[in-house]
Amino acid sequence: DSGVTQTPKHLITATGQRVTLRCSPRSGDLSVYWYQQSLDQGLQFLIQYYNGEERAKGNILERFSAQQFPDLHSELNLSSLELGDSALYFCASSVGGQNIQYFGAGTRLSVL
Amino acid sequence: GQSLEQPSEVTAVEGAIVQINCTYQTSGFYGLSWYQQHDGGAPTFLSYNGLDGLEETGRFSSFLSRSDSYGYLLLQELQMKDSASYFCAVSSSSNTGKLIFGQGTTLQVKP
Hints:
The complex is a heterodimer.
Chain A: E1 5-7, E2 10-13, E3 19-24, E4 31-38, E5 42-50, E6 53-57, E7 64-68, E8 74-78, E9 87-94, E10 102-103, E11 107-111
Parallel strand pairs in A: 2-11
Antiparallel strand pairs in A: 1-3, 3-8, 4-5, 4-9, 5-6, 7-8, 9-10, 9-11
Chain B: E1 3-5, E2 9-13, E3 18-25, E4 31-37, E5 44-49, E6 53-57, E7 60-65, E8 70-75, E9 84-91, E10 99-101, E11 105-110
Parallel strand pairs in B: 2-11
Antiparallel strand pairs in B: 1-3, 3-8, 4-5, 4-9, 6-7, 7-8, 9-10, 9-11
């Protein structure tokens, strides 16, 4: 158990819908990262927050947004969902911008 | 552009040694990490190289040559439980933890 908690584990929804994925980092970790893993794209970095502030951005679609709250948990919002958004979404955390990242178990999103 | 190249599949027998190579081409480079992922599971950190040379952690070792933009993960005394996907990942900046991952190498350990 990495200490990073992601909910829900599975999510099935329809095209055009909006969903929210939640992540609680390890106790004491200030950085939260979001990654998308699909079969054809591998693990893709989406966004990083550090202590409530956006720190780095990857190729995150405009339909996707994220935030980190004062208690350091983070949410990833995906809207106007398309079939191609079906993937595993991982959250990871680290103490700072360190290279050791601890990954949650992921949320498997299926868009039908 | 940014790219990391690693073999897609490797097969080895129990007790053997296997090396998984990773070459990278990125706009910035701060260090190279390795992660293990069992089927359907979460990636877990294995090793990190910020400087040239070899880092050893139990049965796993990792090597980096910054001048060659190359690294490898060495797994010794292979066990069946080592069957998994292995990803190299580049940290391109010291200011963020953003990781750029390779496509992963699937290791199959046979008895």
